[in-house]
């Protein structure tokens, strides 16, 4: 077993608000090895995006980040100066954002923006950086790459812009790439292309990838490992197979009931839904945050929830689980 | 980009023509020019003689065309008051006004933009509060009062700067500060607001994710997008400074074009007023045109329009 490239223990993010502190991310753990894809799933507001921004060191000033461990390639990210973080970002760790329409600077050409990270981190000339940009535009499937360099973002479609964003993130061959809902803003037909592209490039460049999404269909196709987040906690994580075949947490099961399964779900049949809303995370949060929406909730759900484990990687936070082994998803 | 520039240029020419027509018609909107020239004690025959002498009896459009083509050659006719060619009269005064305007807007931009950026980087910090304080002061203090205060301190008490005249660069220091400080608050607030908005944009996060330094994020990625409205505002203020710095010019006894315009209105010296209105409007038109070009260079999305 190789050492993980990214190791996170008890990562916590607090947001100070006028009404009190919001515990947006509450002590999450995960590990990621080179060449692995971890999908973080969960509904809006569950802390997925904050987690990825926290790893990159891109949380805005007011947010408070703490962790027992936040290590990237053996570097303790909690203790690095801003300068060191800058030298890692865009070089060894890169990020792809949700909104391709607004994530590119409208005032600069595609070529300028692609070359930037390469010029910042490599001792390269502009000519070399642009040559690298053309190479990567080709890799992400953009035709006539050379002529794209002098175009501006507003001249490209959303799908093309997201390809440019991907190319931009890969300029320096990062060891870790974090994609935060990279396809949410795109047409359904384009979504599949972009995801396939990401998965192929990840394999080809042997990168570790964190894919943040709320689309379980995507997860099923490309994840090695899955972390299910709910209300700032990882409620269940394991290999993709374990999560899909043997989900233990009632929330994971609920999520899985929400997606249609080809061949199993009959036309016209109602898909599942999880009633209720996510509880407020402002102030003290005790016990299982899902208990208000859970159909197997018990009085002891209000107490601290122990983590249960099965095998090396499958873990979940629920008082149930062992007893219901083999229960249908 | 070229098509955009030509389009804007065509527009500028049309506006110039309209303004020239308006400034020419002033001659007839302010009463009978012939009797104005003839003076209070002139008889009817004298007025008629002057009417034919100056050509006021010709059709309006003929007179306009005559005036316009002369103006294009730099000939704005004779000043009724000074009995001198208007162009000569103005050329002198204009150089003072232009120097003052350029110094004033430079002072305003060089203080307002850095201050606005610094304020936006740390909202509600000490520097933001200071910038707010300075801009409220600038907006609240009347130019004539601020000018007099400066004269009292630097000319009378300290004796560092001459209080009036146009002898050397020292004469322009206080007028520049007064004029520039008047324009500074609006530019500063607009820069701050623009920067605050742009700094929340997704592409700023993208730049940070690339590992760009704060300095680079601010000045390369944010400022270029934030200054587009600032450029337009500065152009209008520049036009205003060149045409409307009457107060500042009179306090410091800088005999510039603004002061001349004010005097000429009082003397009913219509050829001079006409020429000055046309020239002041031309300043606005030229600066608006230049700011359009600058903005198109700054933001490629504008070039399409």
Explain this structure to me?
The complex is a heterodimer of chains A (329) and B (305). Chain A has 329 residues and is of the alpha/beta class. Chain A has a single domain (6-92, 172-324), classed as P-loop containing nucleotide triphosphate hydrolases (Rossmann fold, 3-Layer(aba) Sandwich), CATH 3.40.50.300. Chain A is built from ten helices and 13 strands. Chain A has helices at residues 48-56, 82-88, 110-121, 126-139, 145-148, 158-170, 188-205, 216-222, 240-245, 250-257; strands spanning 6-17, 20-32, 37-41, 64-66, 69-72, 75-76, 93-96, 176-180, 208-213, 225-230, 233-239, 307-310, 314-317. The longest helix of chain A has 18 residues, at 188-205. The radius of gyration of chain A is 21 Å and the shape is globular. Residues 323-329 of chain A have low confidence and may be disordered. Chain B is an all-alpha fold. Chain B has a domain at 87-264: MetI-like (MetI-like fold), CATH 1.10.3720. Chain B has 14 helices and no strands. Chain B has helices at residues 2-29, 33-38, 44-54, 60-72, 86-121, 126-140, 143-157, 170-199, 202-209, 214-226, 228-244, 246-251, 257-266, 270-298. The longest helix of chain B has 36 residues, at 86-121. The radius of gyration of chain B is 24 Å and the shape is flat. The relative contact order of chain B is 0.14. The model of chain B has no long low-confidence stretch (mean pLDDT 88). At the A-B interface, helix 2, helix 3 and helix 6 of A face helix 9 and helix 10 of B.
Overall CATH class of chain A: Alpha Beta
Q: Number of folding domains of chain A? A: 1
Task: Determine the structural class of chain B based on helices, strands and strand pairing.
Answer: mainly alpha
Model regions low in confidence, pLDDT < 50 over at least 5 residues of chain B: none
Percentage beta strand of chain B? under 5%
Helix content of chain A: 25-40%
Overall structural class of chain A, as computed from helix and strand content, comes to alpha/beta
How many strands of chain A? 13
Multimeric state: heterodimer
Query: Major sheet of chain A, described briefly?
Result: 8 strands, mixed
Distance between the termini of chain A: 31 Å
Task: Determine the strand fraction of chain A and express it as a percent band.
Answer: 15-25%
Indicate the overall shape of chain B: flat
């Amino acid at each position: 077993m190789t050492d993980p490239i990214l190791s996170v223990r008890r990562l916590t993010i607090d947001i100070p608000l006028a009404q009190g502190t919001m515990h947006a991310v509450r002590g999450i753990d995960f590990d990621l090895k080179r060449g692995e894809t971890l999908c973080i799933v969960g509904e809006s507001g569950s802390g997925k995006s904050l987690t990825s921004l926290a790893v990159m060191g891109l949380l805005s000033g007011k947010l408070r980040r703490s962790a027992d461990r936040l290590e990237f390639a053996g570097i303790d990210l909690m203790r690095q100066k801003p300068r060191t973080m800058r030298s890692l970002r865009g070089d060894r760790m890169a990020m792809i954002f949700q909104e391709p329409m607004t994530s590119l600077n409208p005032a600069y050409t595609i070529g300028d923006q692609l070359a930037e990270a390469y010029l910042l981190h490599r001792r390269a000339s502009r000519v070399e950086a642009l040559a690298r940009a053309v190479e990567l535009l080709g890799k992400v499937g953009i035709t006539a790459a050379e002529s794209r360099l002098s175009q501006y973002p507003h001249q490209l479609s959303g799908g093309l812009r997201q390809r440019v964003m991907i190319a931009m993130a890969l300029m320096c061959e990062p060891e870790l790439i974090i994609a935060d809902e990279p396809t949410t803003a795109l047409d359904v037909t384009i979504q599949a292309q972009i995801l396939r592209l990401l998965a192929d490039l990840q394999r080809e460049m042997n990168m570790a990838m964190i894919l943040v999404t709320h689309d379980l269909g995507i997860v099923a196709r490309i994840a090695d490992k899955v972390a299910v987040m709910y209300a700032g906690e990882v409620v269940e994580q394991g290999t993709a197979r374990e999560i899909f075949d043997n989900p233990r947490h009632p929330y994971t099961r609920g999520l899985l009931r929400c997606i249609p399964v080809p061949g199993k779900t009959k036309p016209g049949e109602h898909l599942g839904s999880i009633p209720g809303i996510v509880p407020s995370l402002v102030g003290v949060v005790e016990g299982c945050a899902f208990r208000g929406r859970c159909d197997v909730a018990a009085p002891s759900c209000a107490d601290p929830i122990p983590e249960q484990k099965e095998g090396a990687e499958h873990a979940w936070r629920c008082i149930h689980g062992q007893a219901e082994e083999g229960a249908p998803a | 980009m070229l098509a955009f520039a030509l389009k804007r240029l065509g527009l500028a020419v049309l506006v110039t023509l309209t303004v020239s027509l308006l400034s020419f018609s002033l001659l007839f909107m302010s009463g009978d020019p012939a009797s104005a020239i003839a003076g209070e004690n002139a008889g009817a025959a004298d007025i008629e003689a002057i009417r034919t002498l100056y050509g006021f009896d010709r059709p309006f459009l003929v007179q306009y065309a005559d005036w316009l083509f002369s103006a294009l050659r730099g000939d704005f006719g004779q000043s009724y008051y000074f009995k001198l060619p208007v162009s000569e009269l103005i050329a002198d005064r204009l150089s003072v006004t232009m120097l003052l305007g350029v110094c004033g807007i430079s002072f305003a931009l060089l203080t307002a933009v850095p201050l606005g950026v610094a304020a936006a980087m740390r909202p509600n910090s000490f520097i933001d509060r200071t910038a707010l304080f300075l801009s409220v002061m600038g907006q609240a203090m009347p130019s004539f009062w601020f000018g007099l205060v400066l004269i009292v301190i630097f000319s009378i008490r300290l004796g560092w700067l001459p209080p009036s005249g146009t002898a050397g660069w020292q004469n322009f220091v206080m007028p520049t500060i007064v004029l520039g400080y008047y324009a500074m608050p609006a530019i500063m607030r607009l820069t701050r607001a623009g920067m605050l908005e742009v700094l929340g944009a997704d592409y700023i996060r993208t730049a940070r994710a690339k590992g760009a330094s704060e300095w680079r994020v601010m000045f390369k990625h944010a400022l270029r997008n934030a200054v587009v409205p600032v450029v337009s505002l500065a152009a209008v203020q520049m036009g205003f400074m060149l045409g409307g710095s009457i107060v500042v010019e009179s306090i410091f006894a800088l005999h510039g074009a603004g002061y001349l315009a004010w005097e000429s209105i009082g003397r009913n010296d219509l050829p001079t007023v006409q020429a000055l209105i046309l020239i002041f409007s031309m300043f606005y038109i030229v600066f608006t045109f230049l700011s359009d070009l600058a903005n198109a260079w700054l933001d490629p999305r504008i070039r399409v329009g």
